Amino acid sequence: MAKPIAYDYEPEITINKFLSLQVCVPQDWTNHDVKMFAEKENPCGTTHGWIVDESLGRVPCADRDGFVHVVLQA
């Protein structure tokens, strides 16, 4: 069985705008995991909550191995 990846960092919100967020999360997180993290840390307040903007993709974090940046829209 594969050993889980050990992260030295916690996920975080890196950009917080009125109708969008950028988060830095472990690369193996699903879109659902990303959305739940964003809602917990900064509730959206709209009917559908935060939605992962898949058109922008996931960008590897330059500072933290095994992490990616993901944009969410309200």
Entry summary:
The chain is of the alpha+beta class. The chain has one helix at residues 31-41; strands at residues 12-16, 20-26, 51-52, 59-60, 67-73. β1 and β2 form a beta hairpin.
Number of helices: 1
Total count of domains? 1
Report on the biggest sheet. 5 strands, antiparallel
Order of helices and strands: EEHEEE
* Mean of all residue-level pLDDT scores: 92
* Percentage of residues in strands: 25-35%
The percent of residues in helical segments reads 10-25%
What global shape is seen?
globular
Q: What does the radius of gyration come to?
A: 12 Å
Number of strands: 5
By secondary-structure content and strand pairing, the structural class works out as alpha+beta
Overview of this protein structure:
- By secondary structure, this protein is of the alpha+beta class.
- It has one domain.
- The chain has one helix spanning 31-41; strands at residues 12-16, 20-26, 51-52, 59-60, 67-73.
- Strands 1, 2, 3, 4 and 5 form a 5-stranded antiparallel beta sheet that branches.
Task: Map the helices and strands.
Layout: E1 12-16, E2 20-26, H1 31-41, E3 51-52, E4 59-60, E5 67-73
Antiparallel strand pairs: 1-2, 2-5, 3-5, 4-5
Q: Could you list some keywords that capture this structure?
A:
single chain; 74 residues; alpha+beta; 1 helix; 5 strands; 15% helix; globular
